[in-house]
Design a protein that fits this description.
Catalyzes the first step in hexosamine metabolism, converting fructose-6P into glucosamine-6P using glutamine as a nitrogen source. This protein is an alpha/beta fold. The protein contains 14 helices and ten strands. It binds 6-O-phosphono-alpha-D-glucopyranose.
Length: 373
């Protein structure tokens, strides 16, 4: 494998850097650069009728793929007004869940072989609710998951070798956005003008992702503050809450530092008790509708002598000060901000892990694909 890493020290870093291209490829499935006002007619062409009957969306996944599903829930509900639930497959499959009629069941899996996700799907198919539409959002076209579902929506990330998922995650987010737009549009929940606006924002993504890779150097410097830490908190609100969870998962997977992701509004219901100078607190602060609330949460931490590491929009008004380290991220539209803010948390985990000398691509006790329960 060594040669394939090219100039990169690890597959994970290579895969982080491949994200602008992987996202561009995934976008091309649905968007024709010469006709940028609408989705390509051949995108999910055979499934328009199935998608038009959907009244409820149920997402099932594990690990990083589950976090992509959490973002999709915000998108589906706020933009299409279709109700959407998301659950980890290992819980869903054992609680005898209700699957309502006319559900779109989205199984998200990089590998398409995760045992819990497959079992959850099989149980739903056994229940056989009326109007069920099952969809695999998957990076491996030949996988079991793809064979067992009605619709295959590919992520075109290319092979992902690092155990910690990076480009599979960001391409899952892009594909979920495209699926949400298609479903909303065929149902008349998203009109032509809104669709065209979403598409023009999506087309900026590869360039914005490329720009976010320039944060590598400042984040590498920031990582030194984490090297000898025991525990770490990631905070976000709204669309950034799933990215806070994903950031914490990445850090614990590859650096072995205990990390927790939290919805910043929940701070006062527990984690504030942990705040001291020894627990770094990472904050995701794009310029969005939650920014003022988030700033108040940051203040709560700062006042208790917490040390903040903030990824913030250039126009957020947040400034570096004592115990507040700042890395500025380019301004992006609120809807797509989780895709862009994935990059700094990936880079932070990567550099902390490298400093701690762990096996970044092959962390102890973990597997790329969990095919047994
Ligand atoms: C393992 C991997 C994770 C991945 C999860 C789900 O835990 O280490 O990176 O997110 O499985 O895998 P899937 O292939 O179903 O997305």
């Amino acid at each position: 494998h060594n040669a394939d890493k090219g100039e990169f020290k690890h597959y994970m870093l290579k895969e982080i850097y491949e994200q602008p291209d992987a996202v561009a490829r995934t976008l091309e499935m649905a968007i024709d650069n010469h006709a940028p006002n609408a989705l390509r007619t051949d995108f999910l062409e055979r499934h328009g009728e199935q998608l038009s009957g959907v009244r409820y969306v149920q997402v099932i996944a594990c690990g990083t793929s589950y976090h992509a599903g959490m973002v999709a829930k915000y998108w589906f509900e706020s933009i299409t007004r279709l109700p959407c639930s998301v659950e980890v497959a290992s819980e869903f499959r054992y609680r005898n869940p209700v699957v309502v009629d006319n559900s779109l069941v989205i199984c998200i899996s990089q590998s398409g072989e995760t045992a819990d996700t497959l079992s959850a799907l099989r149980d739903i198919k056994k229940q056989n609710p009326a109007g069920l539409v099952s969809l695999a959002l998957c990076n491996v076209p030949t996988s079991s998951l793809v064979r067992e579902t009605d619709i295959f929506l590919p992520t075109l990330a290319g092979p992902e070798i690092g155990v910690a998922s990076t480009k599979a995650f960001t391409t899952q987010l892009v594909a979920l956005m495209l699926l949400m737009l298609k479903t909303g549009h065929v149902q008349g929940r998203i009109d032509d003008e809104a669709l065209s606006n979403h598409i023009s924002e999506l087309q900026k993504l590869p360039g914005q992702l490329y720009a976010s890779l320039h944060l590598d150097a400042p984040i590498k410097a920031m990582a030194e503050h984490f090297e000898d830490k025991k525990s770490c908190l990631f905070l976000g609100r709204g669309l950034q809450f799933p990215i806070a969870l994903e950031g914490a998962l990445k850090l614990k997977e590859i650096s072995y530092i205990h990390a927790e992701g939290y919805a910043a509004g929940e701070l006062k219901h527990g984690p504030l008790a942990l705040v001291d100078k020894d627990m770094p607190i990472v904050v995701l602060a794009p310029k969005d509708s939650m920014l003022d609330k988030l700033k108040a949460n940051m203040q709560e931490v700062h006042a208790r002598h917490g040390e903040l590491f903030v990824f913030a929009s250039e126009t957020s008004g947040i400034e570096a000060e004592d115990r507040l380290h700042l890395v500025n991220v380019n301004d992006v539209c609120e809807t797509l901000s989780p895709i862009i803010y994935s990059v700094p948390v990936q880079l932070l985990s990567y550099h902390v892990a490298v400093l701690r000398g762990t096996d970044v691509d092959q962390p102890r006790n973990l597997a790329k694909s969990v095919t047994v329960e």
